[in-house]
What we know:
Elements: E1 14-16, H1 24-34, E2 43-47, E3 55-59, E4 64-69, H2 83-93, E5 103-107, E6 117-121, H3 138-156, H4 174-189, H5 195-203, E7 215-217, E8 226-228, E9 235-238, E10 245-247, H6 249-256, H7 275-278, H8 283-294, H9 302-325, H10 333-338, H11 340-355
Parallel strand pairs: 1-2
Antiparallel strand pairs: 2-3, 3-4, 4-6, 5-6, 7-10, 8-9
Helix pairs in contact: 3-8, 4-9, 5-11, 6-9, 9-11
Amino acid sequence: MTNAPVPTTPAKPVVQDVDPGFEVGHLDRFLKQALLDLQGNMQLERIGGGQSNPTFFVSYDNRSVVLRKQPRGANLLPSAHAIDREYRIINALAKSAVPVPKTLLYCEDTSIIGTPFYLMERLNGRVFPKYALSELPKEERRAIYLAMAETMAQLHQVDWASVGLAGFGRPGEYFSRQISRWTRQWQMSRTSDNEDINRLIDWLPKHIPEGDETSINHGDFRLGNLMFHPTEPRVIAVLDWELSTLGHPLADVAYSCLAWHMRPNEFDGIRGLNLVELGIPTLDDYLDHYLAHSGRRQGIAIFHLVFSMFRFAVILEGIAARARAGIASSDNAAEVGAQSIAFARRAVELIQRQSK
Length: 356
């Protein structure tokens, strides 16, 4: 008597936290055809607390990659979540000294998971979401901040035309165009009126500094968007490029400085903390380090900080609007969106302090 084989049901992909309409079976079949060498059952895990393009680890027995996709929903703001631009700039910077993950493929076919997406290699490293760096010894914290400044200087030194980004944005008049853009975004996404925002919309166009220049602008250059070596205070990847464009380098610089101006309960800032005791450089030390490595002479002015706070306040308001519409890409989107008020208030306080 022979034993007949027992019929088995193919294992289903293991899934954690995906949006409705995300057809994981379609993704599994697509990836096994596109990447060829994948073995075993797919595991899909959502990662990060970001408010932007949802990000997942996609793991098989022999390989793990990272997937980034547009959020679901039809009410996305114009130019928001441009996943194709993100893929393009990461590819372009692979030719430069700026550390970025290796891209694997881009897919615009929305029948697979409901939105366009791309894949990139999964790196082994550390990401620090909070500026106080409480998980690190004191002696390493300063080096982490200085590495952030050095990496930003590397980015701003890239010849954007030579790496294929000549059409990635419009050179010149960056601040004027951005003020108009974020004013429109505010009008489209605001969930309530805000007199501080109204004042900033009036003040900013009248105070744009002289001197114009163009570099690659990350658009969200902060500690939490950098991946560091597992044991060394060295950046191995700059992440989250969805807001990148050609712009003024001081916009990135000012944005990266916001942590020094915000309190711990305001997007995890470090204002009011004992920086000497923590081993974190002062804002002046951080800026001096950037200037030394970028070859620049001009530092940021009050305008650049006010602009960055205004812009971020509008971004946070957009998150609040998506939360109300039920299409936010993170569970705490409503809470984060409420902090829009704090950034607008701090920007107005900077203006008031300057005018005294």
